[in-house]
């Protein structure tokens, strides 16, 4: 019974994650009307087929597309500030995770030890009942059997508790991962970048750090609204990930991104950033609501090789200086040192 409930819970979790991804892909706020449409698109074959045709080639659904399919688009709310991760909260999650891990191990040990005890007690009760009639022996057999029955019930509850503990541990693991993710782009956030930078690497390993910034992004937000700006930031994040395969791409804050490369030379790291910059410059963004073409988006970046023993703050400051040099030199370029 418990396992069936667990399987059903996992199915719900998967569907919920799919709905969240659908809303993010089409720039829809987490509103009830949007959840309803996303659920229909994922579970109704006819609506799902229509959505697939409309979005062929990676195109987002427009307001009129959603409304023609029976959905309702709620006006976008004022943008929320990018979440700032509280180090104390992250530490608390890590401590709780360690405690739950220890409790799960304890539960398994107790379950292993009590399973044998319950079996032995049940066999003893059966053996007593087979003995010749002796004064008081029936009462002993009855008490032993009752104890065995209670232990069997406890074993079932213990097994269920072990399952619940494992589920809680998995949820805490997800919470730890989410604490290191930017909610808008899904990229690693500042905390995740700091932890990755602090992770020891082999002495001969080359690491480079890049800081990239969207040119004139404030002007773009003022012209087209934060909703459009958020979708552009998400697209830039995906473009950086595609250009910097197997490297860590983070949203450092606002319209600023950071890339930490491992095993790539300074020339190779700069080439990755230039590839992302060129691809972005060739893209034609459109307003999802009106279909109007937006102005060209460009990216500036500074890239440095991380020095032995250098802190993240120092490496970021050097990369940031190059970023500002790129902007001063006309923007839409990558500066390397």
By CATH reckoning, the class of the largest domain would read Alpha Beta
Number of strand elements: 5
Whole-number tally of structural domains: 3
Structural class: alpha+beta
Largest sheet: 5 strands, mixed
Estimated helix fraction: 55-70%
Q: What name goes with the CATH superfamily of the largest domain?
A: Reverse transcriptase/Diguanylate cyclase domain
Proportion of residues in extended strands: 5-15%
Stretches where pLDDT is under 50 for at least 5 consecutive residues are 76-86
Shape: flat
Taken in chain order, the helices and strands follow as HHHHHHHEHHEEHEHE
Radius of gyration: 29 Å
Instruction: Give the N-terminus to C-terminus distance in angstroms.
Output: 63 Å
CATH topology of the largest domain: Alpha-Beta Plaits
Question: What assembly state would you assign to the polypeptide chains in this entry?
Answer: single chain
CATH A-level architecture of the largest domain = 2-Layer Sandwich
- By DSSP (H or I, 4+ residues per run), the number of helices equals 11
């Amino acid at each position: 019974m418990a396992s069936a409930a667990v399987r059903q819970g996992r199915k719900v979790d998967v569907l919920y994650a799919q709905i969240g991804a659908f809303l993010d892909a089409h720039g829809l706020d987490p509103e009830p009307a949007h959840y309803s449409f996303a659920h229909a698109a994922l579970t109704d074959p006819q609506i799902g087929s229509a959505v697939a045709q409309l979005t062929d080639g990676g195109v987002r659904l427009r307001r009129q597309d959603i409304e023609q399919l029976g959905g309702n688009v709620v006006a976008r709310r004022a943008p929320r500030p990018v979440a700032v991760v509280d180090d104390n909260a992250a530490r608390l999650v890590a401590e709780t995770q360690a405690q739950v891990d220890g409790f799960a191990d304890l539960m398994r040990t107790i379950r292993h030890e009590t399973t044998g005890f319950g079996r032995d007690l049940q066999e003893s009760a059966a053996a007593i009942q087979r003995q010749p009639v002796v004064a008081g022996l029936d009462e002993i057999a009855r008490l032993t059997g009752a104890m065995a029955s209670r232990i069997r019930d406890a074993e079932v509850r213990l097994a269920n508790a072990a399952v619940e503990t494992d589920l809680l541990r998995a949820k805490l693991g997800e919470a730890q991962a989410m604490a290191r993710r930017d909610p808008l782009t899904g990229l690693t956030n500042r905390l995740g970048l700091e932890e990755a930078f602090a992770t020891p690497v082999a002495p001969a390993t080359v690491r480079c750090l890049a800081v990239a910034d969207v040119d004139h992004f404030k002007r773009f937000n003022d012209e087209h609204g934060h909703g459009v700006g958020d979708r552009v930031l998400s697209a830039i994040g995906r473009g950086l990930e595609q250009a910097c395969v197997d490297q860590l791409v983070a949203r450092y804050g606002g319209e600023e991104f950071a890339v930490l490369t491992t095993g790539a030379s300074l020339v190779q790291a700069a080439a990755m950033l230039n590839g992302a910059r060129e691809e972005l410059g060739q893209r034609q963004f459109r307003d999802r609501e009106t279909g109007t073409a937006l102005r060209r988006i460009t990216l500036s970046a500074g890239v440095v090789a991380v020095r032995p023993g250098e802190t993240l703050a120092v490496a970021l400051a050097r990369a940031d200086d190059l970023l500002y040099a790129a902007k001063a030199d006309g923007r839409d370029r990558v500066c390397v040192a």
